[in-house]
Amino acid sequence: MTKRRVITFGTFDVLHMGHINILKRAKKEGDYLIVGVSSDELNFSKKNRNPVYSYKHRKKLIKSIKYVDKVFKEKSLELKADYIKKYKADVLLMGDDWQGKFDHFKELCEVIYLPRTPSISTTEIIEIVKQRD
Ligand code: C2G
Predict the structure, then answer these.
(1) Which residue from 38, 55, 58, 68 could staple onto 11, CB 3.0 to 4.6 Å apart?
(2) 112, β-bridge pairs
C-alpha cells in the first residue's frame, strides 16, 4: 500500500506544546510527515521580528521529533503549490488560525485544519520571559 504523505508548515520558533500537539496529530492523518520550516527571512516578513532561534536550530529541533520524517526550508508563502507537488503530499494540514486560507489547494490535495492548542504561543512565551527580567 502506498504511504499517505502529509505536509505542514510553520516557523516553530521557541518550540512549545502547541507545536508538538499539531505535529503529533498531523502524523496521525497519514504515514509520512513532511514539515516546511520557515526561513529566517520568511519569518521576518510574516511577523516583523527575527525568530528567537535561527532556521538551523529550528530545523534541528523539528527533525528530532519522532513524528517528523522530513524537514525542508519554506522560503516563501507563495511556493506552497510547488512544495505540495515536489514532496508528493496527499494532505496539507494546518492549525485553524489558517482556516480557509489554503482551500484553493484542494485541487492538488486534501486540506485539513486542526484546532490550535489553546493558551500557548511563541509570542506569549516571549512576553512572559520579558516580564521576568
Ligand atoms: N499551533 C497550534 N497551537 C498553538 C500554536 C501553534 O496548533 N498554540 C500550530 C499552528 O496553527 C501552525 C503550527 O503550529 O499550524 C506552527 O505554528 P507557527 O510556528 O506559529 O507557524 P506560522 O508562523 O503560523 O507559520 O506557510 C504557513 C506558515 O509558515 C505557518
Answers:
(1) 38
(2) 93
Question: How far does the centroid of ligand 1 lie from the alpha carbon of residue 91, in Å?
Answer: 16
| Burial of 9 from C-beta contacts in 10 A (0-12 / 13-18 / 19+) | buried
Tell me the one-letter amino acid at 109: C
Which residue is it, cell 489554503? 102
Nearest CA to ligand 1 atom 14: 19
pLDDT digits (tens, 9 = 90+) for 37-59: 999 999 999 989 899 999 999 99
pLDDT of 31 over the 80 cut: yes
Whether this model's pTM surpasses 0.90: yes
The CB density around residue 39, as the number of other CB atoms within 10 Å, is: 19
CB 95 less than 6 A from any atom of ligand 1:
yes
51 CB near ligand 1 (under 6 Å): no
What is the maximum alpha-carbon separation in the chain?
54
Question: Alpha-carbon distance 60 to 45, whole Å?
Answer: 22
Domains within the chain, CATH numbers bracketed: 5-132 (3.40.50.620)
For the chain, give the number of residues: 133
